[in-house]
Amino acid sequence: MKPPQARTGSKEVDLKREAGKEGSDVDVLIIGGVTFGETVNTFQEAQNIIGREINPTVYPVGEIRSKIAENKHFLKSVLNGPMIFLVGDKNDVIT
Questions:
Q1: Among residues 82, 74, 79, 78, which one has the least CA distance to residue 19?
Q2: Of 7, 36, 62, 63, which has the fewest beta carbons less than 10 angstroms from its beta carbon?
Q3: How far apart are the C-alpha atoms of 82 and 55, rounded to whole Å?
Q4: Distance CA 39, CA 36 (A)
Q5: CA–CA separation, 10 vs 24, rounded Å?
Q6: What are the pLDDT digits (tens) for 13-67?
Q7: 73-80 and 61-69 helices cross at what angle (nearest 10)?
Q8: What's the DSSP call for residue 7?
C-alpha cells in the first residue's frame, strides 16, 4: 500500500520548552491530500518506536491558505515559530 501523500509536513518546535523533556508530545502540521485518520495510522509505528505521542493537525492546501489569509492566530503563531520541515519548506505553505 502506498503511503498517503502530503504536500508539506512540519514539526512544530518550541526548543526551549521541549529541550530535555523526555516523553513530551510531538506536534506535526500536515498540509495536503490526507485525512486525519490516515495520518494517525501512519504515525502509529513511529509513536511506538520513539515512545512519544504524535499529534497531527491536518489541513488541505486550500483551507490552510484561506486561514492564513484570514490571519488565524493558531497558524500565525505556528508559522512565525521555529519549525523543522519534514517535507517541503515554508514557501510551500504560504504560496
A1: 82
A2: 62
A3: 17
A4: 5
A5: 17
A6: 443 444 445 667 888 888 888 899 999 988 898 888 888 889 999 988 889 889 8
A7: 100
A8: S
- Pull the grid cell for residue 32: 495536503
Written as nine digits, the cell of 52 is: 512519544
Position 92, amino acid? D
Kindly write down the DSSP assignment for every residue of 48-93, as one continuous string: HHHTS-EEEEEE-HHHHHHHHHTT-HHHHHHHHS-EEEEES-HHHH
Identity of residue 89: D
Q: What dihedral angle (degrees, nearest 10) is formed by the CA atoms of 78, 70, 66, 13?
A: 0
What is the distance between the alpha carbons of residues 37 and 83, in angstroms, rounded to a whole number?
A: 23
